[in-house]
Amino acid sequence: GVGRWRRGGQRYPKLLKKVQEVANGKLAAKLAIQEYPKVLQPLVGHIDKIVDMLRKFTKDTQVSSGKVMAAVSQVNEAIKSANYLAKEIHHEANEAKNLSLALDASAKEAAKQIVEVMESTKTITHLASGIYENGMETKKAAEEGCQAVAEVAAAMDNICNASAEIEARIGAL
Predict the structure, then answer these.
(1) Alpha-carbon torsion 76, 82, 88, 94, what sign?
(2) Exposed, middle or buried: residue 75 (CB in 10 Å: 0-12, 13-18, 19+)?
(3) How many CA atoms does the CB half-sphere of 97 hold within 13 Å?
(4) Which of 53, 58, 69, 172 is the most exposed place for a label (fewest CB within 10 A)?
(5) Is the pLDDT of residue 11 over 70?
(6) pLDDT at 78
(7) Strand, coil or helix: 7
(8) 11 — alpha (psi -120 to 50), left (phi > 0) or beta?
(9) CA distance 148 to 151
(10) 22 with 47: CB under 8 angstroms?
């Protein structure tokens, strides 16, 4: 049996071909241990166990790879959502900025109008004060005029009385 393997029997090249297929990544084939001589069966058994371990490792790697891909996909979706939210926040911030600028302009215009109203109020107060003073002077002048009219009336009464007295004296003469 073993001599035949050493001389290049059919099973030895078959084993080499299977081992080379495994080395090239073909893990589907299962080695049939009983097809090989007893002396090589432990080696074939170990090669078969290594192939089984490689199959399991490949399967586990594919499962892990699938999980990693799913996690990457979820992370990408989260990034897309975060990017969308960031754009929305940026848009809202710009709108808030524009509104703030408009409110600032309105506040400045209102302040300007308040200053104008205050200046107008000062002018009106000054004019009202002048009118009040003129009114007081007019009242005083009117009172003095009334006094003068009263004095003229009293003088006229005196003249009337004096005329009546003179007339009575002339009539007595």
Answers:
(1) negative
(2) exposed
(3) 6
(4) 172
(5) no
(6) 94
(7) coil
(8) alpha
(9) 5
(10) yes
Going by C-alpha positions, the residue among 62, 37, 32 that lies closest to residue 47 is 32
Q: Please, what sign has the CA dihedral across residues 48, 49, 53, 59?
A: positive
Instruction: Summarize pLDDT for 125-139 with one digit per residue, the tens.
Output: 989 888 988 888 888
Q: Which two tokens stand for residue 119?
A: 């200046």
Please name which of 57, 30, 60, 58 lies closest in space to residue 45, comparing C-alpha atoms.
30
Can you give the C-alpha Rg of the chain in angstroms? 63
CA 158 to CA 153: how far, in whole Å?
Answer: 8
pLDDT tens readout for residues 49-95? 988 888 899 889 989 999 999 999 999 999 999 999 999 999 999 99
Q: Check if the beta carbon of residue 36 is closer than 8 Å to that of residue 44.
A: yes
CA distance 16 to 75: 46
Instruction: Read off the pTM.
Output: 0.44
Instruction: Report DSSP letters for 79-124, one per residue.
Output: HHHHHHHHHHHHHHHHHHHHHHHHHHHHHHHHHHHHHHHHHHHHHH
